[in-house]
Amino acid sequence: MKVLLVEDEPDMVALLEATLTPAGFEVRSERGGDRIADVLQEYDPQVVIVDVMLFGSELDGFAVVERIRRVPGHERTLVVVLTALSGEDYRRRALEAGADIFVNKPFSPLKLLQKIQSAEIVTD
Asked: Sign of the C-alpha dihedral, residues 75, 80, 82, 87?
C-alpha cells in the first residue's frame, strides 16, 4: 500500500518512514503541497499524511487536504492530518477540509500506524 507524506521536516519524514516501511507500506515524501494534484496522479497513494504547517510551501495543510479531495479518484483516499497546533478549532478545520484522521504532535508513531491499519481504505 502506498503512503504519501506531505511534510517539510526531515526528522519527521524519517520517523514516519521508519514506522511505516517495516509495516509493509511504500512511502514517498514531498516537502510541500504545491504540486499535490500532479503527485497524486503520478504516485496514486491510498494514504496521505499531511502536516498543517508546511514552511516554504504556498499552501498550508488544510488547503492541501482540500485539493486532495478535488483530485479525481482521491475523494476517498485516507487523509491523516498531523499538527503541532492544538485546539478544537484546528481539528474542526482539518475535518471540514476533508481529513479522516487528526493527530496532534507529539504523537505515538505506533498509535498512528494502528489508526491507519484499522481504517477502511478503498483500493480500486
From this structure: positive
